[in-house]
Specification:
about 50% helix; flat; Methylamine_util_MauE; DoxX family protein; membrane
Length: about 375
């Protein structure tokens, strides 16, 4: 029975770690954004510049140790590593849930969004399964000899790290974000007729001015009892809001594109019925200048020869944009949006979306952006 239990835990823990690492390695830049949020919470922002590297290594460790467990290679070292990893992740998810700081932990990336409490519950189950293995390392029998096992681990290490480096430089293999190829952005922002919004409950803190008595009441109780008619009772502070029932939420809720004067151009840009080249550089201070110059030239040629509207979206200030224009002439229109949706549009700085009638026709990392002639041949020749 114990051998069977160890085998069950071994398979479940191994597969879950591989799956978790692989999902995050599909989008290491997105995972690094989550790490930066945690760095801010724990006041270790000096690690921000290392976030991508740490993300790739953490993803690789999950996959490597999960694979090592499945083949039974170096069992004692593996279970120690797995235990430390799951304790680390459980601490982060508990801290997020209890203190309400990072409300999406990114455990399974954007593929399976989990609340912090759901993530913590998952980590607790995984911790229990890992403890079974930790206290029974001798029952984890290797599938291969020592040398073949080490060779398999070496290959797995190269592959695990390679996946992270590849997706970081050439976009996620599977795009789980709302701006993926084929998505219609205006539709992703709509609430369908009859859809119910989130349902919240308000709790009022009340104090009796005459007696000093205090009590808490929900908004329904507050109205039902008619206590609001009694001038002796006053509301102290702001009411506390609690989500009672989750309603329909559009996939895109935070996209607001404006010009330098603050005028809203969101619908005009994303609903353009013709081809629209959107260059996304959410941070001009850390963008790839050479790539931006190349994209600027492509935008000029497309605008002149095919009347394509080309825009640059950034979260920087107008002063930063003016400084950029001093360095080299921009041929694109420049608009502004918050960094959060811009980071979701394309995992690159800069990256490119080709839109038509609100639909994402294609998107590119600056490393994979086609040359002008290739773009014309693929999309603009009749």
């Amino acid at each position: 029975m114990k051998n069977a239990l160890v085998w069950i835990c071994r398979i479940l823990v191994g597969l879950l770690f591989i799956f978790s690492g692989l999902i995050k390695a599909n989008d290491p830049l997105g995972f690094s954004y989550k790490l930066v949020e945690y760095f801010e919470v724990f006041h270790i922002t000096f690690l921000d510049s290392l976030a991508v590297g740490i993300a790739i290594i953490l993803c690789a460790l999950e996959m490597i140790m999960g694979f090592a467990l499945l083949i039974g290679a170096r069992a004692r070292t593996t279970v120690w590593g797995l235990l430390l990893l799951i304790i680390f992740f459980a601490f982060l998810t508990f801290y997020s849930a209890f203190f309400k700081v990072v409300q999406t932990c990114g455990c399974f990336g954007d593929a399976i969004p989990l609340t912090p409490w759901e993530s913590f519950g998952k980590d607790l189950v995984l911790l229990l399964l890992t403890l079974v293995l930790f206290f029974n390392p001798d029952k984890i029998k290797p599938l291969f000899g020592r040398k073949p096992g080490d060779v398999a681990l070496a290959v797995a290490t190269v592959l695990a790290l390679g996946i992270g480096f590849y997706t970081y430089n050439f976009l996620p293999v599977i795009d789980f974000l709302p701006y993926k190829i084929g998505a219609n952005l205006p539709d992703e922002m709509k609430v369908p007729p009859g859809a119910k919004p989130d349902e919240y409950e308000l709790t009022y803190n009340l104090k009796n001015k005459a007696t000093g008595e205090t009590k808490n009441m929900t908004d329904k109780e507050y109205m039902k009892t008619g206590i609001w008619k009694d001038n002796n009772w006053e509301v102290v502070g702001n009411p506390e809001s609690r989500l009672v029932k989750k309603g329909f939420t559009p996939k895109i809720i935070d996209l607001n594109i404006t010009d330098m004067q603050g005028n809203d151009y969101t619908q005009e840009i994303i609903s353009n019925p013709f081809y629209n080249l959107v260059i996304v550089a959410y941070d001009l201070n850390h963008t790839n200048d050479e790539a931006l110059k190349k994209l600027n030239t492509i935008a000029l040629n497309l605008t002149e020869n095919y009347n394509v509207r080309s825009v640059l979206l950034t979260s920087n200030s107008a002063q930063d944009v003016l400084a950029l224009e001093k360095r080299y002439k921009l041929y694109t229109e420049v608009f502004f949006a918050d960094a959060v949706p811009l980071k979701s549009m394309v995992r690159a700085n800069p990256g490119v979306l080709l839109l038509k009638n609100g639909t994402v026709i294609n998107k590119w990392h600056y490393h994979t952006m086609p040359a002008y002639d290739e773009l014309v041949k693929a999309y603009f020749q009749e």
